[in-house]
Amino acid sequence: MRFSRMLLPTLKESPADADVVSLKLMMRAGMIRKVAAGIYNLLPMGVRVVGRVETIVREEMNKAGAQEVRMPVVVPSELWKESGRWDAYGKELLRLRDRHDREFCLGPTHEEVITDMVRREVRSYRELPMNLYQIQTKFRDEIRPRFGLMRGREFTMKDAYSFHADDESADKEYRNMFEAYCRIFERCGLEFRPVEADTGNIGGNFSHEFMVLADTGEDAIAACNACSYAANVERAEVRRPPSQPATEQAKMPEKVSTPGKKSVEEVSAFLKVAPKRLIKTLIYETDKGVVVALVAGDDELNEIKFKRAIGAGFVVLASEGIVVETTNAPSGFAGPVGLKTRIVADFNVRWLTDAVTGANEANSHLINVNAGRDFEAEYFDLKTARDGDACPRCASGVLSIRRGIEVGHIFKLGTKYSKAMNTTFLDEAGKERPMIMGCYGIGIGRTAAAAIEQNHDQYGIIWPAPLSPFDCEVTPVNVRDENTLKAAFGIYDSLKEAGLDALIDDRDERAGVKFKDADLIGIPVRIIVGEKNLKDGLVELKLRKTGEVRLIKVQEVVQEVKALLEKTTKGG
RNA sequence: CGGGGCGUGGCUCAGUCUGGUAGAGCACCGCGUUCGGGACGCGGGGGCCGGAGGUUCGAAUCCUCUCGCCCCGACCA
After folding, report:
1. Nearest to A540 by CA among A532, A554, A531, A550
2. What ipTM was estimated for this complex?
3. A218 and A163 part of one domain
4. Do residues A408 and A443 lie in contact, with contact meaning Cβ atoms separated by under 8 Å?
5. Which pLDDT value is given to residue A202?
6. What is the pLDDT of residues A139-179, one digit of tens each?
7. Where in the sequence is the domain holding A310, given as residue range(s)?
8. Closest nucleotide relative to residue A515's CA, C1' based
9. Which nucleotide lies closest to A508 by the C1' atom and the CA atom?
């Protein structure tokens, strides 16, 4: 492709509303343009990158035995009513009506449609298992779209759904997809990590997220430094602390005055007690009634773990009124001692000796409080995992917290949708049974954005070779010099003949302008054709990632570029 | 949905408080000089100042309403 003929509008400055690096660079590199909040045009550069991600995903999905289908973007409401999500999904589901006033929605995900498709066509265990996928535009009317392609309202997703006669088969496909996903992100040249994840409101039994590691990632993940355990912090477990014998000299509780001291920091500073010796008492309203949660003062309650521990559907921090009703004290002075409400506590609270907690009386706290003696509670792992916490899976490992961008998610769905939508098959005994399902998603645009978040510098994008819009760029330093231009196009032609995707910057621009644009666009290999070197039959070969420059003979360009791409692909 | 902010050439922004002929830099077009890391000079094109209503002799500027966008929060494969 000739740069001079390509719609490739690079920008010197980032648009003011671009909030993350990947969006700024995608805009500046002429890949995308915003059409409305969370909705973008993909320009030729953008299409190329997204196309490469799609190709890798498609190839690996096919290789893994899945079959490609295409479902509609506009979905009739009946299907969503049947699964119960028409009412459950909320405003994120964009609803619309046709001229006959029939209700539809823009599909944010396609469990209903695929389940309907399969139930119409598949009857027998002989046809199972089956894995169907599509690469399709989705729409989610996000409250606050941001971060460009990373969290748009309209976005491209690869979503696969598998159907099985039994659990064993579903588990096998889950592992198959797990491995396919690893291959996909490896082939993309990305540093990633599969982590245990919460299943959220899609429902299901267990789940992994595939995280591209990047400091700017929205999700925090906890990974063990000794074993392979890694989990989203939303659900990361922490090793249960060992039991400790009750301290014999434990003192008796005593009420102390703490005027106006409510927060852990305030009380800790006022009483000169370390935050971890405080018991934080949180009052929650839940669908199981009011429940009190206790965590050590320096820990944070993980609401997802809490919700699961008490078997609740929703939990919300109680209003001031409920707090007063429950503890007879304004918020900030709640404590477990003497409460009649259900109390659940983190393991760390169990072995605190002479702890400090609210006295359930305004401006007062209790000191010398000991769990087991002064109050009873049910104990669970409730805290949010922190850097340095002990690994739940191995004996010596320690968790470290890193950040990641969720680019893939695999679920074992079970029979949630097949039961709701009556998707059954006949087994060998002729008995009707619901199919077991799995569901496997990859955000295509988000993967491209994550690649940039993970691979850029102050000058621009540094594409991993497999995702780069072009394999290499030929830069004739001065197109007014006939020899330069001729040599550059000669090289360009031979690269193309060798099956490489090349961009040639044939614009009549100063060298500096071309170099800056090349750095911005981030094509991994650059061939710089200049007058002086050309006299000796040489050109420069420059790597975007390291800045390394080598002089090579014109005739060797093709083989050198091929070798380099091979290497960068394998090396990541 | 709550709180805050912003809409002025394609892009980044000044001008708004204190009403009086719409500006700068970049980008774009022409000519000349320059030519290996975002050159320079001269000349030029391009803006219903988001939209509607109002106040005023006069509104980018003041008032009201509206639309869009951004940030923080809550929410979220």
Report:
1. A550
2. 0.92
3. yes
4. yes
5. 52
6. 998 888 888 999 889 999 999 999 999 999 999 999 999 99
7. 254-380
8. B37
9. B35
